[in-house]
Amino acid sequence: MRGNRFYKLLDLFIGTFLIVLLRCAGFKRRQTSNLSPRNIAVIKLAAIGDTLLLVPVLRTLRTAYPTAKIYFIGTKINEELIALFPAYVDRFFRLDIHRSVRRPFSFIQFIRRVRTLDLDIILDFEQWSMITPVIAGLSGAKAAAGFYGSHWARHFLYSTAIRRKPDTHEAENFLRLLNAGLGLHGVPDLELPVQQEAVDSIILDLQRYGWTPNRKLIVMHPGCGSHGFPREWPIDSYRAVCNRLSKEQKMFFVFTGNGVERNLTAKLEQAYPGTSCSFNDLSLVRLIAVLSLADIFISGNNGVMHLAGALKRPQIALHGPTNALKWGPLNPAAIVIRSTCPGCPCLDLGYEFHRVDGFCMAQITADEVYQAFKHLLLHS
Asked: CA geometry: angle at 7 spanning 72 and 20, to 5°?
C-alpha cells in the first residue's frame, strides 16, 4: 500500500473519517498500566523487513506472557514469515486489503472475527497507515498502543501513543512502543530459522548450475520491489563489481528476485554463463536457505537485506534514500555503504524520495563496493 497512490489516498481520507467518527462517538479506552493480558494482538500489514524487525517484540511478549494468546494481524505479504515463528504467534489473521476496498462488507466481517478474540491489548506497529488505528479502535480491545503519525488524527484511538525517535533503528522504536504499552524491555536481536531440507535442495540446484564447494558463493538481490526502484543500485554497477571479482577469485554468483525484479536477475545471469544462476520467486523458506549458504550477500535496502542480516551472513548493504541508522541490517558482519548524494538520506515513512531518477544510488561507486568485498573475503 505504501507505493500505491490510490490506496494511500483511500487510506488517508476514509481512515481519517472513521477515526474522527469513532472519537466523536465518545470512544474511550482505559490505560495499560497494571495490565496482565491474556489475549494480545499485534498489527503489521507490511513488509518483510519491517515484520522481521518485530521478531524481538514477539519474543519478548512470549517470554513475559508464556500462557497468553498472541495474535498477529497482517496481510499476504508477511503471512509466510510469521508462519516461521509458531512459538511466538498463536494465530495469524490475514487482512485482504484489495478485497476490503472492493467489498467493504468483507472488512466488517474481518472486524467481527477480531472482536471474538476478547483482546486485552492491541499493539499497532504501522508507522503511518490510518486504517490500522481504525482496526485497533473497532477490535474491542481494552487498551491500544501505537505510534503518532504525520497526520494529526492518527493517535486518537490509542490509549498510549509515542513518537518514533529519529536516527534510532526501527527495531528499537518497535521495542519502545512495547515498553510504552506494557512496560516490557526487549533486546533488538534478530533470529530466523533455517530448514535443512531446503538447504539440501538448494545445494543440489546450485550443483546442477555448475557451482562447486571450492567456489565462493556470492548472492545478490539487485531489486527493491515494484515501487522501490529509487533504492536500487544501478545494474551496470553490479556488473562492474562482478567483472572485477570474476577475474581475481573463483566465484559463483547467485542473483535472486521476485516479480518485476526478474528482468534484473536475467540481465546479470546472462553476463556470466557457467558461473552464475538466478533464483526467482522462491518461497521464503528456500530464499532463506540460499542466503544461509552465501559467503557474501549484497543488496540495497530491501526485505532480503534484513533476512541476510538476521542470519548474520557477511553482507554489503547499500543505502541512498534510506537512513542506515534507522533501517540498516542488525548484523555485526555487515558493511554499510552510504551514498554521497547531498539530499540523502531522505526517507522516514518510506515514500518521501527527494528524487526518483536513480541519482541517489548511482553515487555509490563500484570501487567502494569492490573494496568492501575484498575486506569481507579477507576476513571470512
From this structure: 75
